[in-house]
Amino acid sequence: MRATGLSLVSIGPSWIEVRGRTSTVRETLDPSVWVETWDDGLLSLDGPLAAALRSAGVPGGARVAVLYESPSAVAQVVSVASRGRAAVDAAQLQVREAFSLEDGASCLAAEVLGEDSGDGGVRTHVLVVADRDDRAQVLFGLLARLGVEPVRMCPSSAPLLREVAHAARSAPDELVLVGLAEACTVIAAGGGGSLRFVRSVPLGSDRLAEVISQMVPDQPGAAALEQGQRVLRAHGVPDAEAPEQWAEGLDARAALARLQPVLQRYGVELKQTVRFGLPAGSVPRVVATGPCAEIAGLARTIGRHAGLEVEPGSASPASEPGSLGLLPRAAVARRTQRVARRWMHAGAAAAAAIMALDAIGMVRQSHLLERERSAFAPQLAGMRDGATLDASAFELEQRCGAIEEALGEALGRAPLWHVVLAELAVVRSAEVQLTEITGRQASPAPALSVRGLAEPRGGAKGAEPLALYLDRLAGSGVASAVALESTSMGQIAGAPARRFEISAKLHVLPDRLAWFSMNEEAR
Amino acid sequence: MHPAATRLVLEGALIVGALFAVSQFVHRPLAIELASARAELAGELGEIEQTEAALAGRVDPAARLEAARARALALTALSGSATDPGALYDALVSAAERHRVELSRIDPRRDARAPTSRDGRELLGVTAYSISLGGEYADVVSFVRELEERFPLTIISAIRFTQGDDPARPERVLATLETAHYALREDPMRAKEEPS
Predict the structure, then answer these.
(1) Which of A385, A407, A411, A450 best tests the B interface by mutation, with the highest count of B CBs <10 A?
(2) Cα atoms in the Cβ-side hemisphere of radius 13 Å centred on A471
(3) Is the ipTM of this complex over 0.90?
(4) What is the pLDDT of residues A384-402, one digit of tens each?
(5) Distance between CA atoms of B64 and A99, rounded to whole angstroms?
(6) What is the rounded CA–CA span in Å between residue B154 and residue B149?
(7) β-pairing, A432-440 with B172-184?
(8) Residue A115 — φ and ψ, nearest 5°?
(9) Which of A178, A400, A410, A425 is deepest in the core (most CB within 10 A)?
(10) Which residues of B touch A340 (CB under 8 A)?
(11) What CA–CA distances, in Å, run from A489 to A290, A431, A432, A456, A498?
(12) How many Å lie between the alpha carbon of A449 and the closest alpha carbon of chain B?
């Protein structure tokens, strides 16, 4: 398993390599059919790559990072005099122009390696990778056919470019690094936190192995190349002092003669790069690095051809693409849609969850409210009953009040006649004879009229029976305003008498209804 | 538009539609139900508060109703048979016999009117008579007393006593009484609201 969690698939002209969960599997290819392989849509790689994936324990559906070579793949460090996004855009534009990559038919990616500030202003070093979109689509299709999902595809020289550039820039003193790899060579100069140049040359150790393989008789291309690589790794680059039977029966002198053009090209590329990239007269320290730096004699031989002393360095660990990667436009669109769909689903799920939580909250609140209502329902029912009883009582009181008021009006102004009549008899003396008593209800008080005859005798103290009768009547308590209305002469049994008429006002009971009630109770 | 993008848009529309449907058919009714429950709770709390305030310091409603019923029963008990002229006539005759009073005439009076309530309802019925009678003064007074004490809701609105014309019976009087006998038209506990 890779540190990034992704399996790594590496495809080059002479190799297929899969670093999977369990192991790393490498398959050697015949580099002479590389261009044809691409032209055929990489169909011929289906079998070997499927086997390698299987052997490396990469399961179906696994996400993989891809390092690859293609006839049109580009990896280049561009230094531009701007910063940030503008620097990236400028670098991409520069690469697109330099390699004639059309805007709609290519895919690019960039990574800022660092910024240098000097007398000439700011320079941003941008690592740009690019390829034709159709080529990227072919590679993507190959991996998709085999059931894995490429998440980033990167030209194989890009990681070496990044590593060598970083190493040169971070060197304490001026330094030229020569990154040696199977398919390319990266030359970078820098030091003290700045980077002078970085250059990638499409020349790798596989070219040396390929030359050695041409000396192997009766071997198919891939097997011969594998043997060449093995010889190169085991015995290095031969020199003039090498024994005649150099390695695996190969003649050292013949091998050296065949390797000379390739080694000379190494030397020329290094010499020219240093000559044009560094100030004239400077003698930099040159160190070899990269996965092929430990091939014996390679660094020294390149140095001799370049007229420089190249120190053999230690081999850097296997390169990984990092975050830099290309994807065909269609894949990007699909990924964008997939991401959009995921976000949409996530949003919908979140909305559904919020709604569900809200609904649960509302249901709970409803239950709480219902519980609260049921808690004081008896109190409310009691109050309602109380209010109903109170309203009924009020209504009944109103009715009773109205009846009592009507009865009071009907009964209120009548005196108790039997009391009056009894009192009239009680206060009458034998000398007074009543001939007519009339009484009636009247306002403000009942009126009484009494007519009769009284004997006219009497004394000085007014003891006349009529006067006495008047006094008694007035003091009886049943009448008030007792007045003698008229008198005239008459007779009683032939004897002279006073005919009189008395008027009076009668008292009434203050509460006749209560009196009736009292009588009712008495009954 | 690219078919995949179209599918994405359709999928999005479907999801939005589904969420909207859930919102309309599940969420909204719940929200309405909750709002209704809140409103009912607030209403009930307000009702409790108002009822408490209204009943504060008042007599216990049950006791109050009981008292009102007793009052109504008392009124009902007071109400007699004034609306039944036959029974009233019989009672008058019986009373006259008990008090040795001779009834010569009992004429209904048409001029008597029972008072109405303030809102114009006729709560009382009235039967009125003009009663002519004769007898000893004390007997007549006794008869009058029975009318006033024993006859329910009865008043005598006018009297006229004259001396009898028999010299042998100087205490005999002739009297005319105008009576009014009131009665409740309805049981107060069963009364219905009448249009005013």
Answers:
(1) A407
(2) 9
(3) no
(4) 888 888 888 989 998 888 8
(5) 107
(6) 8
(7) unpaired
(8) -125, 140
(9) A178
(10) 8
(11) 170, 15, 14, 9, 5
(12) 9
